[in-house]
Amino acid sequence: MPAVEKELRVLFTNFHRGNGGGHDTYVINLLAGLAPAHEVTVAAPRTSRLFRLASGHAGVEVAAVDFAPRGLRWLRELWALWRLITLGRFDIIHVNGSADHKLIMLVRLVALRRPRVVYTKHNDHRSNSVGNWLRAWLGTHHVIAVSDYVARKLRTSPYSRVPVTTVSHGIDMGHFAPPAPAEADALRARYFGAGSPCTVFVSTAGTRYEKGWTDLLEAVAQLPAHLRTGVRVILAGEAPLPCMTGKVAALGLGDQVVFTGLLDDVRPTLAAGHTAFVLSRSETLSFACREAMAMGLPALVSDAGGLPENVTDGQDGWVVPCANIAALRARLEQILSAPERLAEMGEAALSKSRAYFGMDTFVAGTLAVYHAVLEPGVRPQPLPAALTQSPTQ
Predict the structure, then answer these.
(1) 78 pairs with which residues across the strands?
(2) Same fold for the pair 9-170+358-387 and 181-356
(3) In the predicted model, what is the mean pLDDT of residues 292-310?
(4) CA-CA to 234 of 20 to 30 Å: which in 23, 64, 194, 257?
(5) Distance between CA 172 and CA 353 in Å, rounded?
(6) pLDDT, tens digit (0-9, with 9 covering 90-100), for 247-285
C-alpha cells in the first residue's frame, strides 16, 4: 500500500532546557493535531521536557538543538540547525520563544532553503527591543497571538509589519474529561483523607511567585474560622522556594495545602478539585485554566492579561482584581457560602470548553496561518544530490 503524502512539512522550535510549561503543552497539542496529515519535526534541547514528550509521539521527528549555547558550542549548534533547515524541506518553521527565534533568523539568512517563519507570542514580555525589531524584519512572516490581549500589544510593536492572528489554546476534550463523582471523592480522600467535608481549590499553573498562589493562601488565612478550616488547596508544579513554603506554614495552613510536584498528567489532580484557580500577576491566556474548565471546574482567575478571556464572571468562574487580597477574600467568602453553586458553574465551564476550547478550532486556526504565509503552488526546490548525501556515502 503506497504511503500517504503529507501535506505540509513543519519544524517546531523551542529553547527551554527543562520544563517549558505552556510552551510544551502548546507544541504537544499541535503535534497531536497535525501529525496525522503533516510531516512534523521538533527541535529542542535534549534535556528539555518537550524533547522527551515529543520523542514518544508517533509520527514526529525530534532533533536535539540547544538554542542558547555558550562559547564555541555556538558553531556546533549553528551547523546542526543549518543542516536541519537546509535538508529538511520544511514549508514552515514555527518558533515559540526569543532564543530559538533569534537562531532561526540567523541560520535562515544563510540556509539554502528559506522556509516561512511563524512566531507564536506566548508571554507578556515587551516586544519593542532591538532584538525584537530585527526578528520582526528579518525572521517573521506571521505572528500568532494566544489571546486578543496579546494581539493588541503586538499591533503596537515592531511585529505590526506582519499579519497578527489570534489563535487561542485548544484542549483535547476527550483527554480532559470530568471524573465520576465517586472517583473525585476517592482522589480527594487520597490527598486529604476521608472525613470532614471540605472545598478543594486546585491549580496546575505552577508554583512560581508570579502565578499568584500565595495571594489565595493569604486570603484564605483571613477568612472567618468556620470557612477557613474547610478549605483545602492543591498546587501542581516544580517545588516552590523554601521562603514560599515557609510562608504557608507562617499562615497556619501547612496541613491544608498539598504540593504535588511537576506532573506529566494533571488530570487526577484536577479531578480532586471543586474549583480551579489561576491568580497570575502576568498571564497571556493559560492552558491550566482551560484544562481545568474542560474537567468541569469553575475557574477563579485574576484580571491579569488575557485570563479574563477564559471566564464569564459569575457564570463559569470568577474574575478578581490582580493581587488584591481584600477583593479575593470577599470572593472566597461568596464561593464558600454557596458551595451548591459549584457543580452548576462547573457544568457551565464544561459547556463553554466544548463550544470554544476544542482542538479542532485550535488546529484549524493554526493551519490557516500556515497557508496564509505560503504562496499557492510554491514548494521548496530539490537540493543538489551531493548535498543530500552524507560524507560516508
Answers:
(1) none
(2) yes
(3) 98
(4) 23
(5) 10
(6) 999 999 999 999 999 999 999 999 999 999 999 999 999
